[in-house]
Amino acid sequence: MDTERLLARLDSVYEIVPECRQTPVDVLLINTCGFIGDAKEESIQTILEAAARKKAGEVGKLIVFGCLSQRYMGSMPGLIPEVDAWFGARDLDPLVKALGGTPVEVGARHRTSFQAYSYLKISEGCDRRCAYCAIPLIRGPHKSVPIEDLVKEAELLSAGGVKELILIAQDTTFYGLDLYHRRALADLIRALSRIDGIEWIRIHYSYPADFPEDVLDEMANNPKVCPYLDIPLQHISDKVLGMMRRQVDGAWTRELVRKLRSKVPGVALRTTMIVGHPGEGKKDFAELLDFVREARFERLGAFMYSEEEGTYGAANYKDRISRKEKSERLAELMKVQSEISLAFNQSRVSTCERVLVDDFVDGVLVCRSRLESPEVDGEILVTFKPEIFGVSDGSELCGKFLDVRITGADEYDLIAEPVK
């Protein structure tokens, strides 16, 4: 989204060239991530590859912006001198000015490819101070985008064919506290729901502490709100949660999961867990496994704890668990979750669901229901047959809704056929 908003302010003075074309360019922009080790490595590798292209004469100016730049502005320019300019995650206005960009209407984006879904960033920054997290250091304090601006942006997206909005922020539940002096996520959802063409609204990245219950009412009663919630819980052990400075304990977490399932029947819960935290002993990890078996999250991702410089955890805890042990714990947790995911997917066989077609690949329609989010969850795959769908090219169905019957499942994806 940051890239699309940036490009919207540049497309009147530059021809925007898709990355896949790999043609010589006057300016190459790289948006970086600096949150965890793997993301930093990927960003640096991308910059180095671009620097090689510049040496080969394929790139004029090389400009890097985003989280990695923000976090390491003092050291990166000296390490990769081929980069002409570095801008932080909070420096989009100076970057646009440096490139001679122009003002655009509120909410304008230059979309680089068509998708029937779009992410809508409702706030920036975070006021939480989780011990392991560098986001507040990178993105700064929480700042909500006004409802009227988000509605305008969503209207423009809808006019461009978007059917699904995925609300994201560092913490979506904190939305509105700075502007309206109350949690206003439910108000925003109601405003977005009134936009013609928007059929699904999905919520990501909700912090568990002080979860606003009026959002659950919207999820249960508003037909446009998907019964889906991404709520990173990170752990269940009281000791680990305390050391993480998560502001909740295990009992609170269990009660929240119970409340979510009670108030929104059939809700699909996605969560994230961290394994190998310095406070995670064998009993704590065993408790985490038991909790995952008990809660039966429809979706669960996990990653190994990494010490991030500048955070409370890095300053106060010794990263004492070996990478080998972390890797083994991660594999064990994901094995448990794989069995849960398989059982959930198998329970849907023979049911009928409405799906949104995201793509057409090798004769197969790649779809999702309200219970799957793009890029992080599995897909529903439907074999394309022209005589059944009434069109000769399956790509004509991208961005359309279909009614299908689930016929098969594995732990990730589902197989389906159209309902005649």
Please tally the β strands and state the result: 16
pLDDT < 50 stretches: none
Multimerization state: single chain
> Mean pLDDT across all residues, rounded?
94
Q: Main beta sheet, described? A: 6 strands, parallel
Rg of Cα set? 22 Å
Q: Report how far apart the termini are.
A: 38 Å
Please state roughly what percent of the residues sit in beta strands, choosing from under 5%, 5-15%, 15-25%, 25-35%, 35-45% or over 45%: 15-25%
Question: Helical residue percent?
Answer: 25-40%
Tell me, what's the shape?
globular
Number of helices: 16
Structural class: alpha/beta
Question: Numbering strands along the chain, what is their spatial order in the largest sheet?
Answer: 4-7-8-9-10-11
Task: Summarize the structure in short.
36% of the residues lie in helices and 22% in strands.
Structure commentary:
This protein is of the alpha/beta class and 420 residues long. The protein is 36% helix and 22% strand. It has 16 helices and 16 strands. It has a six-stranded parallel sheet. A five-stranded mixed barrel has the order 12-13-14-16-15. Helix 2 links the parallel strand 1 and strand 2. Helix 7 packs parallel to helix 9. The two termini are 38 Å apart. The mean pLDDT is 94.
